[in-house]
Amino acid sequence: MHGNQLLLEEPIRMASILEPSKPSVYCSMTKIVGTLGPKSRSVDIISDCLNAGMSVARFDFSWGDIEFHQETLDNLRKAVKGTKKLCAAVKKGDTIFIGQYLFTGSETTSVWLEVTEINGEDVVCLIKNSATLAGSLYTLHVSQIRIDLPTLTDNDKKVISSWGVRNNIDFLSLSYTRHAEDVRHARQFISTLGDLNQTQIFAKIENIEGLTHFDEILQEADGIILSRGNLGIDLPPEKVFLFQKAAVYKCNMAGKPAVVTRVVDSMTENLRPTRAEATDVANAVLDGTDAIILGAETLRGLYPVETISIVGKICAEAEKVFNQDLYFKKTVKYVGEPMTHLESIASSAVRAAIKVKASVIICFTSSGRAARLIAKYRPTMPVISVVVPRLKTNQVRWTFSGAFEARQSQIIRGLFPMLADPRHPAESKNATNESILKVALDHGKSSGVIKPHDRVVVCQKVGDTSVVKIIELED
């Protein structure tokens, strides 16, 4: 984005529209977050969701009790074990809207009210539309009104300190984030809860306050969720797209994941999305979105597996025409000079991979930071993040770290983690010794992304130095 002008993609080849989609183990580089609920909590359905392309599971504690969600999470773990697919876990004029699973845009499941009179504690409103309110869950949203309530309620803290700690949640979705201080308070709270000090906090931007303080919130948060349904109430409809583009751009340049909600609402009850929804998914990918959250579509929708599958296919098609060259130049220009050592290595790895037409980038990392920086430059090929566990102690027992870092990579576009065996060296000249590099290459071959005679770019630390090298594979 330059000034107020949007950078457009170069013309799309019409031939690419007619090319058949090629199946891949990585359905798309863009990640899909599925909300697990009544229609998507059995081991079989969750397994199908994982195979269809879900990489992060979301647990929404605005409904359901702890026991319900625990049983669902136990089923997720069984499905992960059965499918051998890694998956992270996630928690959850004046105009008034009241409805269920706000807001579809069709206005048939939510009521739009306009305040006409205030009489003591009574608020008299004029109903502006016809709607049918059904079911047990309703949400109330007051447009552009500042509400002085804590971002983390006592009930939130109870759930996090019990269910969250017991299950080592990877991400915390901080609803209605209004200020950077909200993120700091949440981080201070979870930092006292054992292993949850590694839990990443994603700020959910849902109202005008969060929008106004977006830049400061982005600095504090580990990622951003753009709740377009609620934002569409505080913002005029014609402004929502502009905020989406600006917010995603800022997240991209900061190297932090941007997640978009409300994309294929109609698939809650239909097997196919509308044309407008399919275009919306593609445009989110072209904007630079890392992941897409499916809410009601998988929570209570009739076709959770099919929804994940078709969204993945749309993302994959959009990625084919993503203008990586333009994006790379924008990012390098934004970062400026002199670059940090790690930023220079990451951008060089991506440039090298594109120049030699590598099929994959393999990055060895312990904290995950190097791999995230590579993904920031949006390479056109998958990045296999090989997380090498580190041995740590609390003076009572020794444990390996690395599982958190591997799972948290699951929400970043183009990043596909694998947890290495700490007993294996990163590389070995002895062909009989199964090095981590050989394991990573074998993983790529079995996944179908690495073929004979392919070129592979490897990024790793050797002593105090970071090295980027190109490997040409034999048969």
From TrEMBL:
This is Pyruvate kinase. Its cofactor is K(+). Pathway: Carbohydrate degradation; glycolysis; pyruvate from D-glyceraldehyde 3-phosphate: step 5/5. It catalyses: pyruvate + ATP = phosphoenolpyruvate + ADP + H(+). The keyword ATP-binding applies. Residues 343-470 form the Pyruvate kinase C-terminal domain. It comes from the Eukaryota. Residues 85-308 form the Pyruvate kinase barrel domain. The keyword Magnesium applies. Belongs to the pyruvate kinase family. GO terms for molecular function: ATP binding; kinase activity; magnesium ion binding; potassium ion binding; pyruvate kinase activity. Keywords: ATP-binding, Glycolysis, Kinase, Magnesium, Metal-binding, Nucleotide-binding, Pyruvate, Transferase. Its EC number is 2.7.1.40. It holds the Pfam family PK_C.
